[in-house]
Structures
1.
Amino acid sequence: MRSATMGFAVLAVTCVLFAAVVIAQQAPMPARDTLPDGPRIFDSSRRGPSGRPIPGPQFRVVPMKGLSHPYALAFLSDGNMLITERAGRIRIVRNGVVDPVPIAGLPAIPNRNLQGLNDIALHPRFAENKWILYLLTDEDAGALLRIEPVRAATAAER
């Protein structure tokens, strides 16, 4: 009986060692956060119920590096973009390049779990007053959602 137990133990150790060798020889997984270097073109064409193609427009997606957990964006009249980052920053993108300095004037915003800076919208009279409205989740302050303004005159015009 003791030799049967010993044989089973040897078989188990052999299987574990074999599995370790097989796993060690597999190719490493590519990095998950790797973005393509250039724009990608996507086709929104689809097929109808009969199988005939229904043409749709193509759209171009340009990945941007230098952002941490981007959430929402707003387009300015000059073609630049404002992008929110969950950590509490609003970044401006000029000519496809992210400005390394975020827009100033936001309060401390929690950045844990799914709390943080979320949506963004331009005030209807943004051209006159430079107000940006942003939405944040802050359960610590007793509010699930808050909408607050920030004046972006200096940041959007730099």
2.
Amino acid sequence: MTPRMPSSSILRGAGAAHKRARSSRAAAATASAPWVVAALVLLGTSLLVMASPARPGAPPDELAKLETHLTNIRQLTFGGENAEAYWSLDGKRLILQITKPPHECDQIYTMSADGSDLKMVSTGKGRCTCAYFFPDGKRIVYASTHLAADACPPKPDYSRGYVWGLYDSYELFSANADGTGIVRLTNHPGYDAEATIREDGRKILFTSLRNGDVDLYSMNPDGSAVKRITRQAGYDGGGFYSPDGGRIVYRASRPRTDTELADWDALLKERLVRPTTLEIQVAKADGSKARQITALRAASFAPSWFRDGKTIIFASNYLDPKGRNFDLFMIKDDGTGLERVTYNETFDGFPLFSPDGRRLVFASNRNNAAPGDTNIFVADWVP
């Protein structure tokens, strides 16, 4: 989720068509990448060799042969920037963020699981991100800047490189599923966004800058009982509860050297973050026993759980770390068994399984009608 990444909206644009013939280079890099093996050994994990080709992407006519876990892929949206589509617990509806005229930045919409009945449920003001259904399907949660201004907040200053903006004006709100009955949940200076909800509906997991660093927090559905979960320097965000609610998975950056820490602090003062190196972490729901399960030295993000609670699906530009080709990967919660899922030449991200585990929703630049379009797709999952 993003600035999920963020908030989520930044990486959606990162998937614009970027077709470059670098298959041989990527294959060679993967075959002779001792730093990957060494890093994973240090973590006490092992990376299984991917049996599939290690090139950054494949043309559309080859995707069906390579994407063996996906079948019956359906495109649900057509045009504009559509991202972070997440299921209702009954599997009948999706909630997502869309940028399309007349709005200049993201608003929140819901639609049926087949893409029909699309409705805007946010205010139409400011910028929104990271929406989620409560388990009963009657209410939703999302982040918005609409209390600060009707207009979209300014874009980040890219003279500092590729950065995300952490807008202080983001606050979290709940509302009825049709957008009425808005209730403010957070009221604190600093970024509050990237909310997801435990399946029993009793806890919200979110990202906040309220204590001077970008960390994960939990709170009750009414905004009370806020508890800090992570405390290490760096970005912790885009968290999801496991199906049983006992654990969380999230993306994290960990500046370690003096130079990295100085860069982190300088950007954070400007409410910016550089998302070029993010790894996937798992922990208990209270933040204890945190463990990094990837060491890909890339922008790995949008992790969520398989329904077994033992495997994680996420997006990464691991095979194209200086480019914009993000694919979906799966990995066991102990860091073993890394496997590539998608082979699209551009961007695939924000994967989430349906509550019955039979369908996977994701955002992609595949089949674009116009450069930069990001659309929502649903596929049947093949184990």
3.
Amino acid sequence: MQRVGFGLFLIVAFSVGRAVVLLGIGLLLVYAQRFMARFQMNSQVTTRWLPLTSAAFIVLFGVALTLQALQTAGIFQIEL
């Protein structure tokens, strides 16, 4: 109970950090939109393969994280 001030400081610091990160991501997206407007985006690569590739990457990354968590918890063992 004697560290209430420190706890409040951590909450404020985390909130400010999150706000800065979200602002940075927003600005990055605005500038990326302007940059990408220069290129023609009607090819088969951008309309079909880019979304498929990014979705596959996210799924594989999630599976890898899940396997690592299960291995760390001792539920699943991988011998390479």
4.
Amino acid sequence: MVGVLYESSKDRARCACPGRTARKRRREASDNMFLEMKRLIPTTVVGSYPQPGWLIDRARLGSKVPRVRATEIWRIEKQFLEEAQDDATLLAIRDMERAGIDIITDGEMRRESYSNRFATALEGVDIENPGTTINRTGARSVVPRIAGPIRRRRPVEVRDVEFLRRNTDRKIKITLPGPFTMAQQAQDDYYKDEEALALALAAAVNEEMRELGAAGADVIQLDEPWLQARPERAARYGIKAINRALEGIPGTTVVHLCFGYAAAVKDKPSGYSFLPQLADTSASQISIEAAQPRLDLGVLKELASKTIMLGVIDLGDPKVETPEVVAERIRAGLEHVAAERLVVAPDCGMKYLPRETAFGKLRALAAGAALVRDRL
């Protein structure tokens, strides 16, 4: 009898407040709609974020992009460096969260450049006796020298992902240098065949990507700026190398393409020499910078099968954009890409900005995306 009375009381309570139940359902539906809208046009960063002045000597780094190790830029003694890099990573995480970024990175706080940490960790690379090659500007650069077969000896960025995953509830992204770009940034004294070297590097990247996904990365990005710099070679084997790196990798994968950091490249063309071809990669997203070069976005129609990660923050301009300016750039992208296939980000190279400027630009990015979502 008690059981029957208890159930009847619950029934009476439900019947007594039909309006409250209806309001609750409407509120839940509204909340679900808000979350769905928020998932449209998510914000992210390409990879890097300014490293604190107490961590690196910014004057020594300048606008350089080291290919070999550049340990002289670190201000912290070796025995304390990892702890300091972890602390700097926490600052980057909190800045991105406070700015309202949806998919965050570790800011690449442990790196001297986007590529050299991974490239110089591979077996077969002689870091004691580096080589040289012609860089994107036509000058000669010191680069890793390939002296033996390329093999991945150990995880390189897995701890980075684990640390990032432990310290945020946001979606997280990690970046790796792509195999084509690493092949261009090396002196090959072993394979003596660019395609063979790129494919060997791709196999090493693939092994790393598998472990990064297992460690908790939601998004894994390959940085491939040299596709743009050397389109003829890219046409021969660039897609093949990228697809070998991505082979069997689940989840969201990105290929990033750019013209070079704003800190080093002031005048950029308004079109890419190698972009539509990326439709043939197995990556789910293609990332391009578009704000500083004032890119003709009509080319995005040729990537209809891909989600586009669009650069809408100009890192060549020290002025922080207003949310309205950012919204205008996003809407320009929406003329060619559906909202369901658009992710927005700054152009690449945030590490070279003052931290205050970088944070302001990220806040403008989040606010501009919110303005666009409100009118969808």
